[in-house]
Amino acid sequence: MNSLNPKLFDKDVERIPSRDGFGEGLVLAGEENKDVVAICADVTESARVQAFKDKFPERFIEAGVAEQNMAALASGMAAEGKIPFMTSYAVFSPGRNWEQIRTTICYNNRPVKIIGSHAGISVGPDGATHQALEDIALTRALPNMVVLSPCDAIEAKKATLAMVKERKPCYMRLSREKVPVITTENTPFKIGKAQVFREGNPSAGSTSSLQASSGRFADATIIATGQMVYLGLLAAKELEESNISVRVINVSTIKPLDMEAVIKAAEETGGIVTVEEHQVFGGLGSAVAEVVTQYYPVPMKIIGINDHFGESGICRFNLVKEQFWEIYLRYFCTNFRGNPLPVCLKKP
Amino acid sequence: MALSAQDIQNLEEKANVIRQDIIKMLLQAGSGHSAGPLGMADVLTALYFQILKHNPKKPDWKDRDRLVLSNGHICPVLYVSLAHAGYFPVSELQTLRKLRSRLQGHPHRESLPGLEITSGPLGSGLSQACGMALVGLMDESSWRVICLMSDGEQDEGNTWEAVMFAGKNKLHNLTALIDRNNIQIDGFTEDVMPLEPLKEKYEAFGWHVLEIDGHNFESIIGVFSEAKAIFEKPVLIIAHTIPGKGVDFMENDFKWHGVPPGITDIPGEPPKNEQAKIALQELRTLQGKIKSEHE
Fold first, then answer.
1. DSSP-based three-state secondary structure for B179
2. Which residue spans adopt a coiled-coil conformation according to this UniProt entry (chain B) (predicted)?
3. Is A311 a catalytic residue?
4. Which residue of A has its CA nearest to B121?
């Protein structure tokens, strides 16, 4: 995609936490719409609500460390015409207050915007208690809910503004760490639409007769969400040097999932690898598999946290894990090549 | 505005009809809660026929008072009151808990006109009422928020998060009412999880607390009027009620908390086939005070 950050693969690529993009977007949303209010559960600075609080003190509500009250309170405010953004760490919201979100926001169908910061293992030193690895599964299972997972700060800002216009309950997961800026102001963003960040071409060097006759557009597709999109792009770039062409899709709306983009990827590239900072159960991979198995079955690999909790550690620990994942990504993409059967499901 | 003896009598008669309809709809539904709805019939009657500023023809009228039912399981009394107030046909009450009915087992806001919230899971109604009241104050609106809670749901942590929030923000346009009937499903509240001293607890959280007899119309109407005059704090009304009020064998008996008439034989109580008939007879005769009943 032409509109991506031209310095994407530079060593000094700009790195900004996605929560910063949200904070910036929230102020813009407040300027655009007087009904926007922000509620925060005692993490105003780290969840990046401080700028909104400074600019619109009369529209900022401190809920204290009480996420259950925050959710139902937001529902009540939405009932009276406000557009509440309720913010905490994802472990606590939608974790601690899931039932209040289910009943008073989703079943009650109130357009509350739930912002869960510090999602994923990249939270690092705080350890497993603060690393939300289940939030996508929790929110995706709720009727009426829109689930967003932006890939960088710029997309988080756009998603924040788009949520104001979405008359439904929304959940957006954000990360704590600084992550490479992938997109630009010009990159298209629309709720419900996945973006193909890298189209991929059929491998020039391929000699597989199966592939030659398959008319494939690329050898595999990486479908990623959040900061893992950057890993996907890195893996695809490495693979290109080995004449393996990979499509990379950024799924910033996990629900409603862009089924068309997923089916097209299955059809045109014949294999899909998903990657997310989330349990492999119920997250992006599950959402993609629900579409692939029902509408266009192709071999798939789901990369994520495999049924365990995270752990405390400096970010280097997590980086090792990320690098491991990138190798994983490359491995699986390579093994889809010309393989109609999921032999790629063996571990490297 | 002082009420005449005739006004009070009219309300008492209305509440009696509402109780009869509760028994009929529960019998038809075959499941649901009996004790709470019967116990709260007088409060709901007073609200919908005297206290609330509302318009059944325009359920979304922006200046209406908001009645938030937090303990959704007593919805039979809310449904019957709404129907008699004119929000939907009384005949629809017989569809309670049936497939495709607008009268869900616990209230679903989008299904039925007149509902302010969806409720059932306990402890979050007061939070929603706080959200509404906060916007009311932000926008300088004249309407008030009335939140009905059970005493059992005072066990919920969420309730106390909301109590703290309302106290902190001095939500004086919010009046909460606890149906203090002393029972919950597993037994008496003070056995299951003691709540007392309830009044002092709320006062410690920054609330103004009033206590009434929840079956005395003058008290009910008077206390909501008094609540309006409190400008610096949210108000809690502890309404002492008799669960199962009006039906002798149901009164003060936690076994009738979550059971409808006509389904279960309970030792020492009328056989299941007789329960609804006896209950209706008692209501019609005001528990035997009227002797001309010929059934």
1. strand
2. 1-28
3. no
4. A103
